[in-house]
Amino acid sequence: MATQTTSSEKQTAVTDAALSPSLTSSHEQPVDRAAERRLVRKLDMRIIPVLWILYLCNFIDRANIGNAKIAGMEKELNLIGQRFNICVWVFNLGYLVAGIPCTILFKKYGPKSLCVMMLLWAVTVIGCGLVRTWEQLVITRLLEGICESAFISGAAYLIGAYYTTAEYLGRYVIFLTAGIIAGAVNGFISSLIAKMSGVGGYSAWRWIFIIEGILTIVIALGCWFFVPPFPEHCNFLHGAEKELMLRRVKEGGHNPHDTITFRDVLSELGDWKIWAGVAMNLGVTENANSLANFQPTILKGLGYTATSAQVHTIPVYLTGAAVSVIFCLLSERMNHRYGFYLLGCGILAAGLIIEVVYPPSAVTRYAGMFLIACGAYVAMPISIIWVSVNAGSGYKRAIAIAAIINFGTAGAFVSSNVFLFKETPRFHTGFSTGLGLTCMGAAASTVYFVGCWLTNKKRDESGRTEPVTEQSEVEKLGWEHPEFRFVL
Q1: Which of 287, 298, 307, 396 has the fewest CB neighbours in a 10 Å radius?
Q2: What stretches pass through the bilayer (predicted)?
Q3: CA torsion sign, 69 to 75 to 77 to 83?
């Protein structure tokens, strides 16, 4: 987090709100804390719900391929061998290639572009339900990945634009629960749509894609009027409320005046801290993607029917969502990230070990799915927000978020190729690989923590003899500025 420190504040852990010149400057009126609480409640009601609904659609549309598989798609499209896995990972190829460029376009053209993204990917989802060969499914999934590539990073940036560092993680994890809940909703909706087999001459799996794609189009059009603009163009706050909001986020993650060049992008991507964040996110996202894409198949392998397997995914996702919110809010309250990320990795590893050992009891193996969901969904948001708040503001933060999310999602390349068809339902290679990546994420978080801690310590000990720097310089240099202190 970027703060301006004095010699009396060295060795002291502080939040942005405590040191923000926009809130503490002698040239401005002190903040009315009651008014600030009312403002935060209004932001919570205006920003988070609409983004939550959009993300619910986003995750349903990307994960419904796992539900469609066991509803008849595998047989009808002749998805033998690794063909299904190819259809899964090619989505992430589009995601990986287009993520950073599309996030830069989001920053340039504004939050309404989120709805444009939705309309485009909804068309590709409907296309998934109309394909006649598995090769056509590969193409539509690739296009879907490209269209979705900047949605999560764009929404994450928008949330950080309106909230202080001390509030960012809590709001982001609530937003992220939409993706978790979507897994549960997907199972429920798919179990209902499965009864439509033969309607209009289409199989049940086709209706899963078609109906969910049409719903996404309707919701995208409806939410166009409710997606908030960037703070400087805020149209739902006026007068003193808008002034207070702008004062609060003056040193937050959004900089409306910065510009970006290709050389700047390469420079940002050359920082080791971003790649530590990528490793942290990849280590847990691979397991979350495995859960989304293969859980219905895994549960079917435990002896459940196709419909029962869909339904049994629901409590796994709901439990993961609840645990994620609880521990991430604790992390935010305690202003600490590293320990809670390791906690998530530990829970995740416990679940993976159960699946690797493959005990004879189906109930025990089902319990392992709960641990995987809880651990992955605790660690994922922390890995993203922890590094992004340390990245500075504006395009620096946008690039950091996009890199961590989109390169981290490359874990799906791994999961889609290690959950081998011939190992159904045990998937020993898949779960063993997930365990190894979890350990990699824990190691990366330790390196990141130590590196940031040593940098903070060095900057605190060096002292400051020069006058306080202009805020514009702090924004420009980001985490390279000597007054910058990293969140730990």
Answers
A1: 307
A2: 86-106, 118-134, 146-166, 172-193, 205-227, 314-331, 338-360, 366-387, 399-421, 433-454
A3: positive
The span from the CA of 178 to the CA of 182, in Å, is 6
Q: Report how far residue 296's alpha carbon sits from residue 386's, in angstroms, rounded to the nearest whole number.
A: 32
| pTM attached to this predicted model | 0.84
| Residue where the block lists tokens 């998530």 | 344
Tens-digit pLDDT profile for residues 234-260: 989 989 999 989 888 876 667 777 777
pLDDT at 106: 93
Residue 306 · residue 71 · CB < 8 Å: yes
What does the pLDDT read at residue 4?
37
Structure tokens at 281: 């996110």
Q: Are the C-beta atoms of 17 and 250 separated by less than 8 Å?
A: no
Check residue 31 and give left, alpha or beta (phi > 0: left; psi -120 to 50: alpha): beta
Tokens of 317: 């996702």
Q: According to the model, what pLDDT value does residue 17 have?
A: 35
